[in-house]
Design a protein that fits this description.
By secondary structure, the protein is α/β, with parallel strands linked by helices. The protein is built from 17 helices and 13 strands. The longest helix has 19 residues, at 162-180.
C-alpha cells in the first residue's frame, strides 16, 4: 500500500477541528485513507450509499450522540445533506463539554452540495482537505512515465498491464456518466457530457473558448458553463485562473482548462500506451497538465495558483503565490533540452518573480542563467512541499 501525502494533514486537522471533510473524486482512495486513520483511534464507519447504514441515521442525533467518544466516518456524505444541521448541533453540545476536535470525518466525491451545505451549517467547525490521485511524491522514482500514462487513480496506476488500466479507466468514465452524475441533479445526457469531456481533453491546457465548445456540441454558452461547472465541482476538471497584476498591459482573462487526471485524458482520446500518447498532438498539453497537478498536489494549502498571459504573447505556464506574497514562476517543457521563448522572458520581466523554474522531462537540476533553474517535476514538487 502506498502512503498518502495528505495522511498527516488529515490527522492534524482532526486534532484541531471537530469535523474534517476529505474531498476527492470517486475511487481516489478516500475510504482507504479514512480506514487507516481509524486504526489509530476508536471509530465507527457509515457508508451513506448503503441502505442499512442510512437506516441507522433515521434518528441521526440519537445514533451519533451514542458515539461522541469516537471518530464517526461518514462516507459519501453528500447523499444526506440534511445531516449537516444535526452535526452542527452535536458539535456545539460537545464543545460545551470540552469535546472540541476529532468528532467527524466526512468523505465526499462531489464538492457541490458538500461545500455549500457544510459551509452554511458548519462554518468555523470544519476543515477541508482535498485528496488527489497518486502524485510523484507518493510513488517510486522510476514510475513517473507510468503515472503520466495511466494517471494516478490507484486501480488504474497499480493495474497489472496497460490494457487492464485502460479498461478500468473506461469503466470509471462510464460509471460517472451513467450512474453518478445523474444522481447529482438535473439530468445531462451521458453521451453529450462524454463528448464535452472529450472536447476538453482535446484542448488540454488551452484557454477556455466557450463559444467554440458550444458550437461543437450544438448548445448555448450557458449550457457549456453548466457542464464545465459540473465537472469542476466533481473534481474531474480544473479551471486555472489568469494571474491579475497591475502591469499596464492587456491580460488574457479566460481561464485555462485541464482534465485533472492524465490517464483520463488519454482514455477519453483512445490512447492506451505511451507510444500512442507520444504520437498524438495532445502529448504536450497532457504533460503540462500532469506537471501542474503534481505541483499543486504538493503545494501547501494556502498557495494560490494561476497562469500569466498578455495579449502581446508574454506567458508563464504557472504562477504560484507563496507565503508573504512571494511569486514563483514555472514554465513547463516536455523535452530533454528545454528552450525558453521570448514570451516567457517578457513575462518574467513583467512580474519579477522571486524564483523562476523550467520544469522538463529530465532529472538533472542546473542553472540556465538569469536566475532560471531547470529542474525535474519530482524535485520541484519536493521543493514546493517544503516551502
Amino acid at each position: 500500500m502506498l502512503a498518502r501525502q495528505k495522511s498527516q494533514l488529515v490527522r492534524a486537522r482532526l486534532d484541531q477541528f471537530p469535523a474534517v471533510a476529505l474531498l476527492g473524486p470517486r475511487q481516489v482512495g478516500k475510504t482507504t485513507l479514512a480506514e487507516l486513520i481509524a486504526e489509530d483511534r476508536p471509530s465507527v464507519y457509515l457508508d451513506l450509499e448503503d441502505a442499512a447504514d442510512r437506516q441507522k441515521l433515521n434518528d441521526a442525533a440519537l445514533y451519533l450522540s451514542g458515539h461522541e467518544d469516537k471518530l464517526v466516518i461518514l462516507d459519501e456524505v453528500q447523499r444526506m445533506p440534511e445531516l449537516f444541521q444535526t452535526l452542527r448541533g452535536l458539535i456545539d453540545k460537545g464543545r460545551r463539554r470540552d469535546i472540541r476536535a476529532g468528532r467527524f470525518l466526512l468523505l465526499g466525491s462531489a464538492s457541490i452540495d458538500l461545500l455549500k451545505q457544510s459551509g452554511e451549517s458548519l462554518a468555523g467547525r470544519i476543515a477541508y482537505v482535498e485528496l488527489a490521485p497518486f502524485s510523484l511524491l507518493e510513488v517510486d522514482d522510476d514510475a513517473r512515465d507510468t503515472l503520466w500514462i495511466r494517471g494516478g487513480f490507484p486501480d488504474s496506476f497499480l493495474a497489472d498491464s496497460d490494457e487492464a488500466s485502460a479498461v478500468w479507466r473506461e469503466n470509471f468514465i462510464r460509471t460517472y456518466l451513467e450512474r453518478d452524475i445523474p444522481q447529482l441533479g438535473p439530468r445531462v445526457p451521458a453521451e453529450t457530457l462524454r463528448r464535452f469531456w472529450t472536447m476538453l481533453a482535446h484542448v488540454q491546457s488551452g484557454t477556455l473558448n466557450a463559444a467554440q465548445l458550444a458550437r461543437g456540441l450544438g448548445v448555448d454558452g450557458k449550457t457549456v458553463a453548466r457542464y464545465l461547472d459540473l465537472l469542476v465541482d466533481l473534481l474531474l476538471v480544473r479551471r486555472l485562473p489568469p494571474f491579475h497584476a497591475n502591469v499596464g498591459k492587456r491580460l488574457v482573462k479566460s481561464p485555462k482548462v485541464f482534465v485533472r487526471d492524465s490517464g483520463i485524458v488519454h482514455t477519453l482520446l483512445g490512447l492506451d500506451t505511451r507510444e500512442a500518447v507520444l504520437g498524438h498532438p495532445v502529448a504536450g498539453g497532457s504533460w503540462e497538465g500532469f506537471v501542474l497537478e503534481n505541483l499543486l498536489a504538493a503545494a501547501p494549502e494556502r498557495v494560490k495558483a494561476s497562469f500569466y498571459r498578455t495579449a502581446a504573447g508574454a506567458e508563464i505556464d504557472l504562477i504560484l503565490e507563496m507565503a508573504a506574497g512571494r511569486l514563483w514562476a514555472v514554465e513547463i517543457k516536455r523535452g530533454l533540452a528545454p528552450k525558453l521563448q521570448k514570451g516567457f522572458h517578457h513575462a518574467r520581466e513583467d512580474l519579477k518573480p522571486e524564483r523562476v523554474f523550467c520544469v522538463y522531462s529530465g532529472e538533472d537540476r542546473y542553472p540556465k542563467g538569469e536566475g532560471i533553474e531547470v529542474i525535474g517535476v519530482g524535485d520541484l514538487a519536493s521543493l514546493i512541499a517544503e516551502a
